[in-house]
Amino acid sequence: MKIEHPYLMFLGDAPDELAAKTAIGIKQWRPEWCVGQLSLPGCQADLGLPEMSIAEAKAAGVKTLVLGVANRGGIIGPAWMETLLAAIDAGMDIANGLHTRLSTIPELVEAAAAKGVNLFDVRHFDGKVPVGNGEKRSGKRVLAVGTDCSVGKMYTTLAIDAEMKKRGMKSDFRATGQTGIFIAGEGISVDAVISDFISGAVETIAPANDADHWDVIEGQGSLFHASFSGVTMGLIHGSQADALVICHEPTRAHMRGLPGYKLPDLKTCMDVNLMHAKLTNPDCVVVGFAINTKALDDAAAKKLLAEIEAEFGLPAVDPVRIGVGPIVDKLQEI
Protein backbone atom coordinates (compact mmCIF):
# COMPACT_ATOMS: atom_id res chain seq x y z
CA MET A 1 0.00 0.00 0.00
CA LYS A 2 1.10 3.55 -0.72
CA ILE A 3 -0.39 6.37 1.35
CA GLU A 4 -0.50 9.85 -0.13
CA HIS A 5 0.56 12.84 1.92
CA PRO A 6 0.18 15.50 3.29
CA TYR A 7 -1.69 14.20 6.31
CA LEU A 8 -4.36 15.52 8.65
CA MET A 9 -3.74 13.78 11.96
CA PHE A 10 -6.98 12.58 13.58
CA LEU A 11 -6.63 12.48 17.37
CA GLY A 12 -10.27 11.71 18.07
CA ASP A 13 -11.10 11.66 21.76
CA ALA A 14 -7.71 10.29 22.87
CA PRO A 15 -7.67 10.35 26.70
CA ASP A 16 -3.92 10.99 26.97
CA GLU A 17 -0.68 11.33 24.98
CA LEU A 18 0.00 7.58 25.04
CA ALA A 19 -3.29 6.93 23.26
CA ALA A 20 -1.99 9.10 20.39
CA LYS A 21 1.43 7.43 20.17
CA THR A 22 0.97 6.59 16.49
CA ALA A 23 0.31 10.24 15.65
CA ILE A 24 3.21 11.38 17.84
CA GLY A 25 5.61 9.02 16.04
CA ILE A 26 4.50 10.26 12.63
CA LYS A 27 4.79 13.89 13.66
CA GLN A 28 8.30 13.29 15.04
CA TRP A 29 9.68 11.62 11.92
CA ARG A 30 7.63 13.21 9.12
CA PRO A 31 6.70 16.70 10.37
CA GLU A 32 6.71 18.04 6.82
CA TRP A 33 3.84 15.70 5.93
CA CYS A 34 1.62 16.70 8.89
CA VAL A 35 -0.24 19.94 8.17
CA GLY A 36 -2.79 19.82 10.97
CA GLN A 37 -4.64 17.87 13.64
CA LEU A 38 -8.32 17.24 14.26
CA SER A 39 -9.49 16.64 17.81
CA LEU A 40 -12.91 15.74 19.16
CA PRO A 41 -14.36 16.94 22.47
CA GLY A 42 -12.54 15.37 25.42
CA CYS A 43 -9.26 14.85 23.57
CA GLN A 44 -6.26 15.15 25.90
CA ALA A 45 -3.52 14.77 23.27
CA ASP A 46 -1.88 17.59 21.35
CA LEU A 47 0.73 17.37 18.58
CA GLY A 48 1.28 21.12 18.52
CA LEU A 49 -0.16 21.28 14.99
CA PRO A 50 -2.85 23.71 13.84
CA GLU A 51 -6.32 22.47 14.72
CA MET A 52 -8.23 22.06 11.44
CA SER A 53 -11.69 21.16 10.28
CA ILE A 54 -12.10 18.84 7.32
CA ALA A 55 -12.91 21.82 5.12
CA GLU A 56 -9.79 23.68 6.24
CA ALA A 57 -7.66 20.58 5.69
CA LYS A 58 -9.03 20.14 2.18
CA ALA A 59 -8.18 23.76 1.40
CA ALA A 60 -4.64 23.11 2.71
CA GLY A 61 -4.19 20.25 0.25
CA VAL A 62 -4.50 17.30 2.63
CA LYS A 63 -4.65 13.97 0.81
CA THR A 64 -5.11 11.56 3.73
CA LEU A 65 -6.83 11.61 7.11
CA VAL A 66 -4.65 9.44 9.37
CA LEU A 67 -6.23 7.81 12.40
CA GLY A 68 -3.35 8.48 14.77
CA VAL A 69 -5.02 6.97 17.82
CA ALA A 70 -4.15 3.65 19.46
CA ASN A 71 -7.07 3.06 21.82
CA ARG A 72 -7.91 0.03 23.93
CA GLY A 73 -9.18 -2.72 21.66
CA GLY A 74 -8.38 -0.79 18.48
CA ILE A 75 -11.98 0.35 18.07
CA ILE A 76 -13.42 2.88 15.61
CA GLY A 77 -16.06 4.54 17.77
CA PRO A 78 -19.46 5.90 16.70
CA ALA A 79 -18.35 9.40 17.72
CA TRP A 80 -15.78 9.32 14.91
CA MET A 81 -18.14 8.51 12.07
CA GLU A 82 -19.25 12.05 11.26
CA THR A 83 -15.64 13.13 10.81
CA LEU A 84 -14.67 10.08 8.75
CA LEU A 85 -17.63 10.50 6.42
CA ALA A 86 -16.87 14.21 6.04
CA ALA A 87 -13.28 13.39 5.07
CA ILE A 88 -14.46 10.92 2.46
CA ASP A 89 -16.95 13.45 1.11
CA ALA A 90 -14.08 15.93 0.80
CA GLY A 91 -12.17 13.44 -1.34
CA MET A 92 -9.62 12.37 1.26
CA ASP A 93 -8.26 8.86 1.69
CA ILE A 94 -8.40 7.46 5.23
CA ALA A 95 -5.50 5.48 6.71
CA ASN A 96 -6.11 3.40 9.80
CA GLY A 97 -3.68 1.52 12.07
CA LEU A 98 -6.28 0.06 14.44
CA HIS A 99 -7.39 -3.56 14.75
CA THR A 100 -10.89 -2.68 13.53
CA ARG A 101 -10.90 -2.46 9.75
CA LEU A 102 -12.44 0.45 7.91
CA SER A 103 -13.39 -2.11 5.28
CA THR A 104 -15.77 -3.82 7.72
CA ILE A 105 -17.90 -0.68 8.20
CA PRO A 106 -20.46 -0.67 5.34
CA GLU A 107 -21.27 3.04 5.64
CA LEU A 108 -17.61 3.96 5.09
CA VAL A 109 -17.10 1.44 2.30
CA GLU A 110 -20.15 2.70 0.39
CA ALA A 111 -19.16 6.34 0.80
CA ALA A 112 -15.57 5.66 -0.29
CA ALA A 113 -16.70 3.76 -3.37
CA ALA A 114 -19.03 6.61 -4.34
CA LYS A 115 -16.24 9.18 -4.00
CA GLY A 116 -13.45 7.01 -5.45
CA VAL A 117 -11.19 7.32 -2.40
CA ASN A 118 -9.09 4.70 -0.63
CA LEU A 119 -9.54 3.16 2.79
CA PHE A 120 -6.18 1.88 4.07
CA ASP A 121 -6.19 -0.66 6.91
CA VAL A 122 -2.43 -0.69 7.42
CA ARG A 123 -2.46 -3.17 10.31
CA HIS A 124 -3.82 -5.77 7.92
CA PHE A 125 -2.57 -7.09 4.62
CA ASP A 126 -4.72 -8.72 1.95
CA GLY A 127 -2.45 -8.27 -1.03
CA LYS A 128 -0.53 -10.97 -2.85
CA VAL A 129 3.18 -11.51 -2.37
CA PRO A 130 5.36 -14.38 -3.58
CA VAL A 131 6.86 -17.10 -1.45
CA GLY A 132 10.40 -16.06 -0.57
CA ASN A 133 13.11 -17.59 -2.74
CA GLY A 134 16.30 -16.47 -1.01
CA GLU A 135 17.95 -15.62 -4.32
CA LYS A 136 20.84 -13.15 -4.09
CA ARG A 137 19.79 -9.62 -5.06
CA SER A 138 21.80 -6.46 -5.57
CA GLY A 139 21.95 -3.57 -3.13
CA LYS A 140 22.69 -3.50 0.60
CA ARG A 141 20.37 -4.08 3.55
CA VAL A 142 20.53 -3.53 7.29
CA LEU A 143 17.95 -5.03 9.65
CA ALA A 144 17.25 -4.17 13.29
CA VAL A 145 16.76 -7.18 15.56
CA GLY A 146 16.41 -7.28 19.31
CA THR A 147 16.44 -9.06 22.63
CA ASP A 148 12.70 -8.39 22.96
CA CYS A 149 9.72 -6.59 21.44
CA SER A 150 9.38 -2.82 21.79
CA VAL A 151 13.04 -2.09 22.48
CA GLY A 152 13.55 0.60 19.82
CA LYS A 153 13.94 -1.21 16.50
CA MET A 154 11.75 1.22 14.56
CA TYR A 155 13.38 4.31 16.08
CA THR A 156 16.84 2.87 15.41
CA THR A 157 16.18 2.17 11.74
CA LEU A 158 14.55 5.56 11.19
CA ALA A 159 17.57 7.21 12.81
CA ILE A 160 19.98 5.20 10.63
CA ASP A 161 18.07 6.17 7.47
CA ALA A 162 18.07 9.84 8.52
CA GLU A 163 21.81 9.77 9.23
CA MET A 164 22.52 8.10 5.89
CA LYS A 165 20.52 10.72 4.02
CA LYS A 166 22.35 13.46 5.95
CA ARG A 167 25.63 12.01 4.66
CA GLY A 168 24.37 11.89 1.08
CA MET A 169 24.11 8.10 1.04
CA LYS A 170 21.43 6.28 -0.96
CA SER A 171 18.95 4.82 1.52
CA ASP A 172 15.29 4.03 2.10
CA PHE A 173 13.51 3.15 5.32
CA ARG A 174 11.45 0.01 4.70
CA ALA A 175 8.40 -0.16 6.95
CA THR A 176 7.14 -3.48 8.31
CA GLY A 177 4.60 -2.24 10.90
CA GLN A 178 1.65 0.13 10.98
CA THR A 179 3.34 3.20 12.46
CA GLY A 180 6.36 2.70 10.20
CA ILE A 181 4.05 2.54 7.19
CA PHE A 182 2.50 5.89 8.12
CA ILE A 183 5.99 7.36 8.48
CA ALA A 184 7.29 5.89 5.22
CA GLY A 185 4.06 6.34 3.29
CA GLU A 186 4.23 2.71 2.16
CA GLY A 187 5.19 -0.78 3.29
CA ILE A 188 3.72 -4.07 4.45
CA SER A 189 2.68 -4.87 8.02
CA VAL A 190 4.41 -8.23 8.08
CA ASP A 191 2.72 -9.50 11.23
CA ALA A 192 -0.51 -9.52 9.20
CA VAL A 193 0.99 -11.65 6.39
CA ILE A 194 0.34 -15.40 6.27
CA SER A 195 3.43 -17.04 7.73
CA ASP A 196 4.47 -18.83 4.52
CA PHE A 197 4.78 -15.47 2.77
CA ILE A 198 6.60 -13.28 5.34
CA SER A 199 10.03 -13.67 3.77
CA GLY A 200 8.53 -13.04 0.33
CA ALA A 201 6.86 -9.88 1.62
CA VAL A 202 10.23 -8.59 2.85
CA GLU A 203 11.87 -9.45 -0.48
CA THR A 204 9.08 -7.41 -2.10
CA ILE A 205 9.55 -4.24 -0.02
CA ALA A 206 13.36 -4.44 -0.17
CA PRO A 207 14.01 -5.52 -3.78
CA ALA A 208 17.16 -5.50 -5.89
CA ASN A 209 18.70 -2.04 -6.04
CA ASP A 210 21.86 -0.09 -6.89
CA ALA A 211 25.02 -1.63 -5.48
CA ASP A 212 25.56 1.35 -3.16
CA HIS A 213 21.93 1.67 -2.02
CA TRP A 214 20.90 0.73 1.53
CA ASP A 215 17.49 -0.58 2.50
CA VAL A 216 17.07 0.12 6.21
CA ILE A 217 14.53 -2.47 7.33
CA GLU A 218 12.35 -2.01 10.40
CA GLY A 219 12.50 -5.01 12.72
CA GLN A 220 9.60 -6.76 14.46
CA GLY A 221 9.41 -9.05 17.47
CA SER A 222 12.38 -11.08 18.65
CA LEU A 223 13.72 -14.58 18.02
CA PHE A 224 13.61 -15.00 21.80
CA HIS A 225 9.95 -14.04 22.23
CA ALA A 226 7.75 -17.13 22.45
CA SER A 227 4.80 -15.26 20.94
CA PHE A 228 6.38 -13.37 18.03
CA SER A 229 9.56 -15.18 17.00
CA GLY A 230 8.00 -16.40 13.74
CA VAL A 231 7.65 -12.95 12.22
CA THR A 232 11.25 -12.14 13.20
CA MET A 233 12.56 -15.23 11.44
CA GLY A 234 10.70 -14.33 8.25
CA LEU A 235 12.18 -10.83 8.38
CA ILE A 236 15.70 -12.16 8.88
CA HIS A 237 15.52 -14.55 5.94
CA GLY A 238 13.61 -12.21 3.61
CA SER A 239 15.83 -9.21 4.30
CA GLN A 240 18.97 -11.05 3.20
CA ALA A 241 20.70 -8.56 5.47
CA ASP A 242 24.29 -7.50 4.97
CA ALA A 243 24.26 -6.11 8.50
CA LEU A 244 22.33 -6.46 11.74
CA VAL A 245 21.91 -3.96 14.55
CA ILE A 246 21.12 -5.48 17.95
CA CYS A 247 18.53 -3.49 19.94
CA HIS A 248 18.10 -3.86 23.70
CA GLU A 249 16.42 -2.33 26.75
CA PRO A 250 18.73 -3.08 29.71
CA THR A 251 16.34 -2.57 32.64
CA ARG A 252 13.60 -4.94 31.50
CA ALA A 253 13.01 -7.76 33.98
CA HIS A 254 11.39 -10.18 31.54
CA MET A 255 10.18 -10.51 27.95
CA ARG A 256 7.32 -8.13 27.21
CA GLY A 257 4.09 -9.82 28.25
CA LEU A 258 5.86 -13.05 29.29
CA PRO A 259 6.84 -12.91 32.99
CA GLY A 260 8.27 -16.42 32.86
CA TYR A 261 10.87 -15.62 30.19
CA LYS A 262 14.04 -13.64 30.81
CA LEU A 263 15.74 -11.58 28.12
CA PRO A 264 18.77 -13.20 26.49
CA ASP A 265 22.21 -11.71 27.05
CA LEU A 266 23.64 -9.68 24.18
CA LYS A 267 26.16 -12.34 23.13
CA THR A 268 23.48 -14.99 22.79
CA CYS A 269 21.19 -12.59 20.94
CA MET A 270 23.96 -11.64 18.53
CA ASP A 271 25.05 -15.22 17.86
CA VAL A 272 21.56 -16.63 17.30
CA ASN A 273 20.40 -13.82 15.02
CA LEU A 274 23.61 -13.96 13.03
CA MET A 275 23.38 -17.73 12.62
CA HIS A 276 19.93 -17.44 11.05
CA ALA A 277 20.84 -14.40 8.94
CA LYS A 278 23.69 -16.31 7.33
CA LEU A 279 21.19 -18.71 5.72
CA THR A 280 20.33 -16.12 3.05
CA ASN A 281 23.49 -14.01 3.33
CA PRO A 282 26.59 -15.87 4.52
CA ASP A 283 28.47 -12.55 4.67
CA CYS A 284 26.09 -10.90 7.16
CA VAL A 285 27.75 -9.15 10.12
CA VAL A 286 26.66 -7.35 13.26
CA VAL A 287 27.66 -3.67 13.08
CA GLY A 288 26.62 -2.43 16.51
CA PHE A 289 24.19 -2.19 19.39
CA ALA A 290 21.33 0.28 19.87
CA ILE A 291 20.59 0.47 23.58
CA ASN A 292 17.47 2.14 24.95
CA THR A 293 18.89 3.83 28.06
CA LYS A 294 15.82 5.96 28.82
CA ALA A 295 15.49 4.43 32.30
CA LEU A 296 19.15 5.15 33.18
CA ASP A 297 20.75 8.40 34.26
CA ASP A 298 23.55 9.86 32.12
CA ALA A 299 26.38 8.31 34.12
CA ALA A 300 24.87 4.83 34.17
CA ALA A 301 24.05 5.01 30.46
CA LYS A 302 27.58 6.10 29.55
CA LYS A 303 29.07 3.31 31.68
CA LEU A 304 26.85 0.63 30.14
CA LEU A 305 27.56 1.69 26.57
CA ALA A 306 31.30 1.74 27.26
CA GLU A 307 31.13 -1.78 28.74
CA ILE A 308 29.29 -3.13 25.71
CA GLU A 309 31.76 -1.53 23.32
CA ALA A 310 34.68 -2.99 25.28
CA GLU A 311 33.15 -6.47 25.30
CA PHE A 312 32.27 -6.67 21.61
CA GLY A 313 34.57 -4.18 19.90
CA LEU A 314 31.53 -2.64 18.17
CA PRO A 315 29.70 0.67 18.57
CA ALA A 316 27.08 0.80 21.33
CA VAL A 317 24.83 3.86 21.16
CA ASP A 318 21.54 5.16 22.40
CA PRO A 319 19.91 6.52 19.21
CA VAL A 320 18.11 9.22 21.22
CA ARG A 321 20.89 10.32 23.56
CA ILE A 322 23.86 9.90 21.24
CA GLY A 323 22.63 9.23 17.73
CA VAL A 324 23.58 6.40 15.38
CA GLY A 325 26.61 7.97 13.69
CA PRO A 326 29.08 5.29 14.87
CA ILE A 327 26.83 2.54 13.50
CA VAL A 328 26.55 4.26 10.13
CA ASP A 329 30.36 4.59 10.14
CA LYS A 330 30.53 0.78 10.34
CA LEU A 331 27.92 0.39 7.60
CA GLN A 332 30.00 2.58 5.30
CA GLU A 333 32.82 0.08 5.65
CA ILE A 334 30.70 -2.71 4.08
By CATH reckoning, the class of the largest domain would read Alpha Beta
* Overall number of domains: 2
Oligomer: single chain
Shape: globular
Main sheet summary: 6 strands, parallel
Give a brief outline of the structure:
Helix content is 32%, strand content 16%. It has 334 residues and is α/β, with parallel strands linked by helices.
Care to describe what's here?
- The protein is an alpha/beta fold and 334 residues long.
- It has two domains: 7-121, Rossmann fold (3-Layer(aba) Sandwich); 140-331, P-loop containing nucleotide triphosphate hydrolases (Rossmann fold, 3-Layer(aba) Sandwich).
- The protein is 32% helix and 16% strand.
- It contains eleven helices and eleven strands.
- The strands form two sheets. A six-stranded parallel beta sheet has the order 7-8-6-9-10-11, sandwiched between helices.
- α1 (21-29) links the parallel β1 and β2 (34-39).
- α1 packs parallel to α6 and α7 (198-205) crosses α8 (229-239).
- The protein is globular, with a radius of gyration of 20 Å.
- It starts with 6 loop residues before the first strand and ends with a helix.
